[in-house]
Amino acid sequence: MRRDYDLLIFDWDGTLADSIGRIILSMRTAAIETDLEIRDDTAIKGIIGLGLPEAIRTLYPQISGNQLIDFRQHYADSYMAMDNVPSPLFDGVVESMQAFREDGYRLAVATGKARRGLDRVLKANGWQDYFDSTRAA
Q1: Minimal CA–CA distance to 127: which of 16, 51, 20, 19?
Q2: Is the pLDDT of residue 3 over 70?
Q3: What is the pTM of this model?
Q4: What is its cofactor (predicted)?
Q5: pLDDT digit string, tens, across residues 94-117
Q6: What is the pLDDT of residues 50-88, one digit of tens each?
Q7: For the chain, which residues make up each domain, given as ranges?
Q8: Cα–Cα dist 19/103, whole Å
């Protein structure tokens, strides 16, 4: 069977892992702690996949440099507080990844997460050696 692709690349948040609720809650918490207007769920969902600084600037184009630093820290603190239990993988992800691997595909993750965050979730899910390549923001 002829394949057009040998490598399949996936995003982590919102594609493989159902981390949307955590991202929304962490963005809301950071906004409150930084005295910024809370954005609605749709706006926050629209930035998933971007690196954190770009995501924050997309939601808050007027944000100052100091606010950006504070927002990032509050977001990280909030997200990490929930990180003792990994975000669940979407239904069918494990089976699909196994089927792709059995079919001879190489698998990769490219994400807007920081390297430290990606490594942490891969390890928590037992997938630290599963992907042929990983790229983080």
Answers
A1: 16
A2: yes
A3: 0.76
A4: Mg(2+)
A5: 999 999 999 999 999 998 888 988
A6: 889 999 999 999 999 999 999 999 999 999 898 778 889
A7: 7-17+92-135, 20-81
A8: 28
CATH class name, domain 20-81: mainly alpha
**Token pair recorded at residue 12:** 């982590």
Query: Roughly how many angstroms between the first and final C-alpha of the chain, as a whole number?
Result: 35
Find, among 62, 3, 71, the residue nearest to 34 by Cα: 71
Q: What distance lies between CA 82 and its chain's CA centroid?
A: 14
Any idea what DSSP says for residue 12? S
Rounded distance between C-alpha atoms, residue 73 and residue 110, angstroms: 23
Give the whole-angstrom CA distance, residue 127 versus residue 10: 14
| Phi and psi, residue 129, nearest 5° | -115, 10
DSSP H helices, the chain, are 20-33, 41-45, 52-59, 65-81, 93-102, 115-124
